[in-house]
Amino acid sequence: MYKILIIDDEEPLREAINILGDWKGLGVDQVLEATDGNVGLAMLRQHKIDIALVDMKMPELNGSELLQIIELEFPNLLTIVVSGYNDFEYTRQAIRSKVVDYLLKPVNRVDLNAALRKGIDMLEAKREKESEFINKNITLNMSIPKLKEKMYLSIIGRSFKNQSNEAFLPLIGADRAGNYFAAGVLRVLNLEQVRKDRFHEDRDLLHFAVTNVINENNDAQFKAFSFASHKGEREFIVIFTMTGGYVEDAAFLSLHHMKKVTSTLKELFGIVSAGGIGEPYGDITDIANSYESAKSSLDGIDLLKLKGIAVMNSSTDKSLTKDSPSLTGRMPLIRNALENGNISHAKSILFEFTKRWNSSEHFSLGEADRTIQEFFILLNDIAIDLDAVPEQLQNGKDKGLHGLGISVDFASFGQFEIVLNDILDCYANSFSKSLAGNRSSVLENIKAYIDNHYFENIKISMFTDKYFLSREYLMKLFKGQYGYGIHEYVQKVRMDKAKDMLSDSSLKIQDISEMLGYKDKNYFSKAFRNYYECSPTEYRIQLLGVEK
C-alpha cells in the first residue's frame, strides 16, 4: 500500500484530486494534504510519503524551491508537478528534479490517474528490483558463509578437528599464528514486534539485516562474522577475529564493535538488543570457551537495570548473579485458583512472587528466560493433567511456548511480567472452557454419590480431594446448582428417607436410625425434630396412628 501527499494552497484543487484519484485501484491507502510548501515539507519530514503532488505556484515556499529541497533531503521520493502556468522555468525545474509527470490545471481524471499509475509502477519496479538484489546477494554469498558457520558451530560444540578441516582453516583465519579469536552473543529483545512492524513477518530478511550490520566495517586487522543461533531465533552468534596486536586490543575492539552494532540496529530498524562478549584466545578451538563466557555475560545482564540496549563482557562483576526463587512452590496455589475459576487470585499470587524479584538486588535476563520456560512447563503439566491443553497447542505443529501465539518479547522487568501474565491468561481461558464442561458432571456425580451413600459418614474433603476443587468453591457450585449446601443436601436426603421408613410400621425407630447412619436413636430423634419440628414417634403417630 502507498501513501500520497497533495501539496497545494488551493483547497478546490486538493479536493478535486481527492475525488478524481482511483486510490483503491492504485493501491493507495492514505492521501494526506498540505496547504502550502512549508507545511508540505514538514509533513514529508514527519511521514513516509511515496508520491508527492506539488503545485508550482505557492506563497512563501513555491514548488520550484520545494523540489530543490526534496532533491537533497528525499532523493527517493517520487513527485508529480501540478501547475496552472505552462511556463518554461517551471518545466525546466521539473525536468531537473526528475519528476514523474507534469500536469496542467485544471486536472482531469485520465491524466491524473495515468501520472499516478506511472509513479506506482516505478515504485513497484524499484521494490521488486531491491528484493531481487537482496535475494541475489543472499544466494551468491550463501555457500562460503554457510561453510564458515558450520565450522564455527562445530568448534562451539567441541567436535571440530583441525586435521580433517585443514583445507578450510584459511576461511576462518586459523591457518596462521598471531591471530586472536573471541565470541559474542547478541540477543534481539523485541524480535516479534520488529519482525512484524519492519520486516513483514519475514524472519530470513530480519536475520539478513542483523548479520549485515554486525559484519559491516571489517578491515584487514579486525573482522566480525555472525549468524543466527540454532538454539533460539532471538540470538545471533558473533565471531571476532583480530590479526596481530595484543589480546587486550582484541577484547577492546570486540566490545566496541558490539556496542556500535546495538546502537546501529536501534537507529536503523528500531531493534532493541543486548550483547555478551567472551574472552579472546589465540587458539581457534578456544572459541568454545569464549562462547560460553559470552552467553554467561549476556544471561547475567540485570533486567532490573536494563534501559534500552546493553552489552556486557566477561570482566564485568557478576557477583550478584544467583539463582532466583522458583515458581514451583506457588503452582499448587495457582492451580487451585484456576480450578476455582478465580483468575484474579491466580494473578495476585503471581504478582506477589514477581514483586519479590523486582525488589531484589539483581534479576538477570537468564533468570527471566528460565522463569518463563518453567512457568510454561508447569502450567502445561497442569493442563495435561486436567485435559485442558490450549487449542493452539493441540492443533498446531509447535507444541512449545511459541505455539501459544503470544509475544515473549521483553526488554524490561515490566514487559517480563506482561509475558508471564499473558501465558497465565492463555491457560486460564483454556482451564475455564474445559472445567465449565466438566463441572456439571462433577456436581451430578457428587449428588448421585450422596443419594446412594447417604447412610455413610460423608465429608466434603472426599470430593475436594477427588476433583481438585477448594472447599469454598465446591460448596458455592453445589448450592448454586441444587439450592443446598452439601451438608444440607445430605441432611435432606436422610430426612426424606426417614419419612419413607417411618411409614413402614414394621421398622423400629432404632433400626431406622442405624439404616440412616446415625450414631444412636437419640441423635436421630434430635436431628429429625430439628428438621420437621416433631419427633420421629410423633410423626409416625400422626401418619399411622400407631406408637412404636
Automatic annotation (TrEMBL):
It comes from the Bacteria. InterPro entries: CheY-like_superfamily, Homeodomain-like_sf, HTH_AraC, HTH_AraC-typ_CS, Sig_transdc_resp-reg_receiver, Tscrpt_reg_AraC-type_HTH. Gene3D superfamilies: 3.40.50.2300, Homeodomain-like. The keyword Phosphoprotein applies. This is Response regulator. Keywords: DNA-binding, Phosphoprotein, Transcription, Transcription regulation. The modification 4-aspartylphosphate is found at D55. Residues 444-542 form the HTH araC/xylS-type domain. GO terms for molecular function: DNA-binding transcription factor activity; sequence-specific DNA binding. One of its GO terms (biological process) is phosphorelay signal transduction system. The keyword Ribonucleoprotein does not apply. SUPFAM superfamilies: CheY-like, Homeodomain-like. It holds the Pfam family Response_reg. Residues 3-120 form the Response regulatory domain.
